[in-house]
Amino acid sequence: MPTGRLAVSVAALGLGALQLGGVANAAPAGDAGVGGTSCTDARIKVCVDLSENRAWLLDGNGNVVGDPYQVSHGAEGHETPTGDFVIQWKDQYHKSKEYNGASMPYSVFFDGEGRAFHGGGTDRESAGCVRLATEDAKTFFNYLNPNDRAQIVS
Predict the structure, then answer these.
(1) pLDDT, tens only, 3-43
(2) 77 burial level (CB within 10 Å; 0-12, 13-18, 19+)
(3) Which one of 10, 119, 131, 144 has the fewest CB atoms closer than 10 angstroms to its CB?
(4) Which class for 28: exposed (0-12), middle (13-18), buried (19 or more C-beta within 10 A)?
(5) Which residues contact 6 (CB under 8 A, 6 or more apart)?
């Protein structure tokens, strides 16, 4: 029987598969979303608005817990998916297997395709991940946990 981090990851993968059922749309123009963000689900712990390159951390009850964070996201052909996600697992010192061992510090994985919130700067687009300044990624890493909800809108 699995124990420790593996057990949490397996459980989170199961929940994540249930959550990937649809595309999340931003709150309509003129309507404030949850906590003044662009997202629509009060249960989330992180909201990302790809059109504005911003993200917010929330308390899971609809309240924002800090200022917005600057992000970058997937380049054309490697778009960051939109929708509702469940945090799967975390790795503080992750190296990408797909991209020649590229450093992905403070990775918080949100889908079963290897996409994560991670550090590395916002000065360039990613291969589908949500990139943050390294210190901001550390904040995300410390705040978010497996089974927390995330919403990414465009």
Answers:
(1) 443 333 333 334 443 344 444 555 544 456 999 999 999 99
(2) exposed
(3) 10
(4) exposed
(5) none
